[in-house]
Amino acid sequence: MKGTKAVLAVVALALLVGVTSLANAQGVKFLGVGSSAMFTDSAVAVFNSICSQRTGSDCHHYSIKGKNSADGQNYAQAVDQRSASIPVEGGNLWVVWDNNTSPVTVWAYLTVDTIVGNRLFFAAPRAQLQVDSGVLSTAGQNLIVANLFFNAQTGTNQADDASLPSNVLTVIQTTFTAAISDVRPEDAKFATNRILKPLNSKNYSGLGYGTTSANCPSATSLIGCAIVGSWGGATAHPIQYNLSGKDPFTGAKLPKYTVIPYGVDPIVFVYNDTNASGLGAGGFTDWTYAQATQFYEGKKGLVQDLPGALGTGSLSVLLREPLSGTYTTTEMNTFRVLLQNAKTHKWAAAPVDSQEFGVNLANPNTNPLNLAGADGGVRLRGIGTGQVISGNGGVGGVQHIADSIGYTFFSYGNVAAITGVAKYVTLDGVDPINGTYTDGTIPSCTAPCPIAPGTSFPHIRDGSYRTWSILRVITDASGQHLTDTQAIVTAAQNLVNETVPDFVPATATSDGDPGMLYLKSHFKLAGVTKGTISNVPENGGDAGGCPFLASGPNKNVIGLHLNGSNTWGACDLSADHN
Q: What percent of the residues of the chain are helix, what percent strand, and what percent coil, each to the nearest 5?
């Protein structure tokens, strides 16, 4: 498919528009790209509540990941058409279709990094899905368990089909209609600018991936150095784009967009406790934001340095790539907060802490990351949640490295591989998952695993847990794409409590869930945000914003960030605060 990508890059834009418009007219209701956070819930919502609910519908689903061994190409990938030098982005794919419509009606979703998904959506021309023909003879991999898919027409649960039909394959190879994001688009754009800016080793306002060096000779300010994982496999590609105005590659004018809040997920720190003389000895149940920052900056690296830890040994600290929404949420809400001066109460000019501390692409051991801590231990990088949790090819990740610690957006699917070999910890004494912390056992779900509406993630709902983000879907500001995307969001929110409770619905649902009652203060971001900033309607970034009750007296306060160093100020993190 690399050859196919090269051909696509030189096809006349008018022809591309004609092809994609035809495909969309042939029945693509939704083609999402981005964060894996909504992969399961959105597929189940489409199949159960939208496709199979229609009288006489004949609904099917299919999912696949990895590469076709016959030709060595990704089964599914995104193609950014703006330059032949932009690498393709492989990912996991689900497809749902209704054979009882003419032409066939199709929904699909490709997972890539959050910020990559934003870039693919905002690119002008918009990026396209490309699927290898091997799916015509390859069985679906059931990446989502079959007993979550309930066909309303047959009254039975339904597994992946034995292959993807040729008519469906033809239709889905078109432009994306939505980006799936776990950060605001402004935060994603700000992160891209930061990644590509020259390295600033004092405050890490620039990370240097767009700067040419001996280790990165082809890097430019538009196409940066690939970010490589510690265990091989996937790489992440920082590529420039804009949210409005004109595209930086093609000069094409960008259309208007809208952002739909989907649900809220916490970041959870998890650690491997299989070494009885290390983290398995117990005692480590909580750390503060300042303590977590010391380890993620490599300033501490021993098990015995962790608060309360009874064991000894070297610690492996695992972090994500800067193009990740998981990374961005953790970076801006835990490590890289704007601090206030305890005496003057004024904001510092810029935060100085970052999990990128000591990373310099001009030096060895930084890409892929393999940096020793100041007093032992090592920092490593996983590309994608799957690598942080399970490594690559049975090597690396929290699952395979004793005395390792990493972070992830919590979902039952994300942590399934480490249930029984890892535990989680609280932050500043606040549990991210349960109402009361016991021994850090990671909860599991034999799907479906229903709960009472309004009871999931109690400390996200009461505003006391700090490191969370609103998951969002970005689509066209008007038209059929907006209508079809909103239908999926609403269906997923209404189903989440009865299927797999992976997130707090962003809004009230039909089963009586009140939805997320808190929002985060929004603010301007240099080089990104223009005009008036507001919380409702949303405008501006909010990664690192202070949480406020959406119906409380401070709901219109803007520009207030989290404060990680002292308790002065208006940013309250007590339970049920206003």
A: 25, 25, 55
Q: Which has more confidence, 8 or 540? A: 540
Regarding whether 396 and 305 lie in a shared domain, the answer is: yes
Strands (E), 112-183: 128-131, 150-151, 156-157, 178-181
Evaluate the omega torsion of the peptide bond into residue 103 and state whether it is cis, within 30 degrees of 0: yes
What is the distance between the alpha carbons of residues 56 and 430, in angstroms, rounded to a whole number? 49
pLDDT one-digit tens code per residue, 334-356 = 999 866 554 555 555 578 899 99
Q: Range of 114's domain? A: 1-181
Helices and strands (H, E) in the chain, number of each type: 13, 24
Question: For the chain, what is the domain count?
Answer: 2
pLDDT at 252: 98
Q: What is the DSSP letter of 224?
A: -
Question: Does 460 fall in a domain?
Answer: yes
Q: Is residue 141 part of a domain?
A: yes
pLDDT of 17 above 60: no
**Do 14 and 109 have their domain in common?**
yes
**DSSP sequence for 169-182:** HHHHSSB--EEEES
Residue 281: Cβ within 10 Å count? 17
Q: Residue 276 belongs to a domain with what CATH number? A: 3.40.190.10
Contact 151, 158 (CB under 8 A): yes
Q: Residue 533: CB partners within 8 Å, gap ≥ 6?
A: 522, 523, 524, 539, 540, 558, 559
Domain boundary among 470, 494, 509: 470
